[in-house]
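Write out structure tokens for Formimidoylglutamate deiminase.
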Amino acid sequence: MTVDRTLWFETALLPDGWADGVRIALSDGRIAGVETGAARSGQAGGAVALPGMANVHSHAFQRAMAGLTEARGPTDDDFWTWRELMYRFLDRGGPDEIEAITALAFMEMLEGGFTRVAEFHYLHNDPAGGLYADRAEIAGRIVAAAGETGIALTLLPVFYAHAGFGGQAPSHGQRRFINDLDGFSTLVDRCRDLTAGMEGAGVGVAPHSLRAVTPDELAALPALAGDGPIHIHVAEQTREVEDCLAWSGARPVEWLLANAPVDARWCLIHATHVTEAEWRGVIDRRAVTGLCPVTEANLGDGIFPAAAYSRAGGLFGVGTDSNVQIGVAEELRMLEYSQRLGLRGRAVMAGPTRSTGRALFEHALAAGAQACGAEAGLSVGATADIVTLDAGRSVFSSRRGDALLDSWIFGAPSGSVASVWRAGRQVVKDGRHVARERVEARYRRALATVLG
């Protein structure tokens, strides 16, 4: 294998722990060699290197809504009132605007330390609910945004057919989401065509939720995923649990485990309101729970029992969901703090290393890669997805090893990622994406159209 170039880091988090003087050889976007205790040589990569993280759940178009749903309405506000605002937001915005918004979100993910995104894509139809000439028109715009920004893409076209349990007819606000199985099969095939040859890209499927699919429809979807991942919203809201009980006599995760072939390909998004029997069932199937702590806090969803689940061997990744804020550190911090508030303790997610940050980061790294059908880690043969911290910030002074992760997650300000390499190509330099000016300018024009 011909080495394209080498990067040298003062310290790096490798699969077996921290190492100093790390020289990483790159070839064709992958890691060709890792040497530790090496004298400085090659391109100086930075002071602190980490493997890139997968974002297990994103609705990129919702980035444009951030800050616009925080005014109290005439009644109590909750997830369901927020959803009505989101539906109205979708009345505007064509393919060009959606691509521009998606590119901004993907760019910010890279600047925040995410190098892959599982895009839970359900905005399929035009603003009137009609089909585009190409069913995958918007999917193609998502692929274009990923290509422009350089983020690795796990594209998850979403099957959405109903407004509620029992096959209820969809509402007017859901018109841009709706598909039937034949049309959805065509969409999935087109998504594979669009991502063919795209470095690191993959395609799975996503039944939106148990309320949006019938049991027969859900049974048909795993075959369409092939070897790809399967993601589903489940048990995010207490009303969802109550409605599922009324429909089936079972709770959502309970019903899913009893009626679907849940295994290591599956990622259960949120799963906020679960019993111990349910989350132990998820562990038995080796499925991943996709937690989105910032969005779950923003929407008032509740708190997943992550501490107990993790101690019992449960797998969790983190996602940015509605993208009100975007960053690895932000999601991991909110996850830990939500557990502290619920349990009235500290360092509740810490593992054997006693470092809360290390435990959070490594758990989310491994499970996030699994949930996206990808790989992670700075090891030979892996994709060269590398994130460095801005060691010039005072919060990192006199820190080594796990204290660097703890300080990043719990003490550093936003913007503490210095550089990012995705598949060996530097896409973030000095804290800014290399295409930020162009992407941000296009986003501003899109927002003038959508909100004007």
